[in-house]
Amino acid sequence: MKKIVLSIVALIAGQTASAAITQNSSWEEILAAKAPYVVHAPAVYMGRAIAYTFVCRDGDTLRTKAPVDIVVTHMDGNRKATFETVRSEVLSTPINFVQKEDFCDSTESRTLCYPVEYTGTYPMTVEIKVGRKMNKGRETHLFTKSYTVPNCDSVNVE
Question: What are the CA-CA distances from residue 152 to residues 48, 58, 60, 61, 73 (Å)?
Fold first, then answer.
């Protein structure tokens, strides 16, 4: 009986701690919160999308706070995909970026492609939405909070 009562108290205490996530909570508390909380951070593109909450500023670049897995996909003859982690590395991108790609326009008779160059600057402060998952996959918006990208020298490696 004593174990059951202690289990219930621990469960209630855990829920109370989780329920304390508010707009006044620190980003460390918010990011450490477990389900049902969800953080919708915008992304930085470093060959793939990386959440703002997982990057830091290193001079004129943004980089991941820790190495990320580089994964390749293999397709077999039955179109079944298998994934293989080939290495881990720290990804980075310039804060002031230039992205080049081909823009193609197709008509019935031909396709014309020409190079397009996009330039931009990643903001150092972004607005991030925090929500809570409800039953049946629905989600409710709790709050939006400003997040400023930290300098890499002040970040603990995760």
Answer: 20, 6, 11, 10, 31
CB-facing half-sphere around the CA of 11: CA atoms within 13 A:
6
**Number of other CB atoms surrounding residue 39 within 10 Å:** 17
Which residue has 């972004």 as its token pair? 126
pTM for this model (two decimals): 0.73
Q: Is the dihedral of CA 121, 122, 124, 130 positive or negative?
A: positive
Q: Which residues pair with 87 in a beta bridge?
A: 70
- Could you tell me the two tokens for 115? 């190079």
Encode pLDDT of 36-58 as tens digits.
999 999 999 998 999 999 999 99
**Residue 68: half-sphere exposure toward Cβ, Cα within 13 Å:** 16
Tell me the two tokens of residue 156: 């603990």
**88-104 confidence digits (pLDDT tens):** 999 999 999 988 888 89
Residue 19's identity, in one-letter code, is: A
In sign, the C-alpha dihedral spanning 77, 79, 84, 86 is positive
